[in-house]
Amino acid sequence: MSKLNNLVSGGAGAIDPVSVAEYVQTGGFDALKKAAAMTGEAIIAEVKKAKLLGRGGAAYPAGNKWEHLLHIPETPKYIVCNADEGEPGTFKDRLIMDKLPLKLIEGIVIAGFTFRAQAGYIYVRGEYRKIQKRLLAAIENARSAGFLGGNILGTGFDFDIHVISGAGAYVCGENSALLNSTEGKVGRPRIKPPHLAEVGLFLKPTLVNNVESLASIPAIIGMGGDEFLNIGHPDSGGTKLICLSGHVQNRGVFEIPLGKVTLRDIIFDSDLGGGIAGGKKLKFFHLGGQSGPIGGPDLLDTVYSYTDLKKAGLSVGSGVVVVMDETVSVIEYLQCVSEFFVHESCGKCIPCREGNRQLLKLLRRLSVPNAAGCGDLETLRRLIRTMSDASFCGLGQTAAAALNSAWKHFKAEIEAHIRNDHEPV
Hints:
With 425 residues, the protein is an alpha/beta fold. It has helices at 20-25, 30-36, 40-50, 62-70, 92-99, 101-115, 129-144, 175-182, 211-223, 225-231, 263-268, 306-311, 330-344, 350-366, 374-390, 394-398, 401-409, 411-415, and strands at residues 78-83, 119-124, 161-165, 206-210, 239-246, 252-257, 282-287, 294-295, 320-325.
């Protein structure tokens, strides 16, 4: 029995991505027509029943976020789609924007109806130039067909969507930095509170959701929140798009029901990863992105759900599953992770800016046999605590998550590089 489910990705590659007529033939915009006859409260009730958790990485309950914004009286309100997708190993939002842009547009317009928002914005990472053009074409076609623009579906509601291009900064995947960039400011995170639902884009109430989250909304409204919940896990309904890469036979984007498959299934099932390439053995996997934790073969039977992974010290994050075989050095891999964060730190706060540099320096020393002493390990631990507690945003707070988890699973391999004299270099 297949462990795949095409709830969100259904139709990808089977229809012309920007053809409204073909999208409508597959049931497209039926959910929008249904939502147009519902109140904002009724729409949000279905999202809450579905227990949709944010698919961008934070896993915040979408229904709670939507409800908070609905009860804020100030207007105008804005809908912003976070399509920055700068997390290494993540490419599932690209699939939606490239193959199913009209599904994303439908989800954004439903959100617009819910809050009677003034406009929607899709913030797309700068490297996705071709996809930006595809989104613009899909938006124009939806507008021509009456699903965007003025008097949508004859309801008197006016709403349009604009595409904003990022410039390649990873930190702009953080929602408040993304809004600053959209406004033409430096893409650095804002202090919170106030929350973005209160003071967001142009200092007005704003909903910011990930591409996959918004693309799930038509399914929730179409089938109802209860049915969406039943497809997934009791604590997190629906499916998850996962991005398999690394040393697996089958690399790509796969859609699985939450709570119904294990990590072993994801890596070794023939419908999914298909096992380790070249007949080698699994050494470890890295979940959720560069800021996510690392796990070893002993955790393969963990069920892939937000709840079960959290209990095992792992996370769903953005849906990344990077698989590494027995030939990979854990320390060298961690160096690559650290180099990424050094490059992408916005430099706003010292714990992240300087902490990541020192982290990389210590990892490089660890990679040389007998160059590091016990004092270096203690320095690493203090550095990780400081970065986690004092960094301004999630980039610095989670930059050492991979190292922290690797210590638990590969302590012997890491400490084998330490001198026996118990003295720091």
